[in-house]
Amino acid sequence: MFSLSRLAALLLLVPAALLAQRQAPAPANLVDPPGTFSILGYDPRTGEVGAAVASRVFSVGNGVLWAEADAGVVATQAIVDVSYGPQALELLRKGMAPADIVKTIWERDPDPQPGRWTKEGRQFAVMNAKGEHAVFTGPKASPWAGHKQSKYATAQGNILAGEQVVDAMIAAFEKGEKDEAGNFRHVSWRLLEAIEAGHAAGGDKRGQESAAMIIVKKGCGVWHNNDVVLRLQVDYNRDTAIADFRRLVERWNQVQGRRREGC
Fold first, then answer.
1. DSSP per-residue letters across the chain
2. pLDDT per residue as tens digits for the range 16-44
3. In a domain, 25, yes or no
4. 136 part of a folded domain
């Protein structure tokens, strides 16, 4: 039989249990690092500079890619601090070398959340308007993480199937300068094919979801006073994001790829 004294003891325990629950530290609101692979590329023939990216996260282009004509392009990813993008563009405008920009931004990062979003896991790449570039992959970026560079391109990624991803990206960019007839191709094709090659090599080992591209050159966008040659995004498709991305690039080249004089 349930006694009154036992009931009273249980009632005394309830407030104590509730208090302990309130005082217990809340679990950290961890966010999965976004597995991402990107490429920055320059076309010395046209002076256009651009970047492309793909990932198994929603709308990867919003935050990873930054570009400004006569300055350059930036990709900031992995344990990402999005402010690295505008910081790098500001330093590019001032004429700082990409290698110095990478060093400056990372060293002055205050690392506000070292326990859950450490600067040691950041990955970012910087290319100026001449095609000079530099890249940093932090030692705590989620594996596989790393980068590969060529004269006018840098490919980088994290949570990848392996090093073969960035190797394939650079190989595709270098191979794609001309078509089979020997004609020069727009740099958008080379950036696209680099992303496709990276994806075919394993890409983000969790799969695909979104992709994006931006290319800039002073005065070479459509209409007047526009420096954005193209800006394309596939924000969400876990089955065909890369194929959708190709359709956008193909359509741009059909409709807007005809260059104005001087572009």
1. ---HHHHHHHHHHHHHHHHHHHHSPPPP-------EEEEEEEETTTTEEEEEEEESSTTTHHHHEEEETTTEEEEEEES--TTHHHHHHHHHHTT--HHHHHHHHHHH---S-TTTS-GGGEEEEEEETTS-EEEEE-TTSPSS-EEEEETTEEEEEESBS-THHHHHHHHHHHHTTB-TTS-B--HHHHHHHHHHHHHHTT-BTT---EEEEEEE-TT-SSSSS--EEEEEEE---TTTHHHHHHHHHHHHHHHT-SPPTT-
2. 433 333 333 333 334 555 679 999 999 99
3. no
4. yes
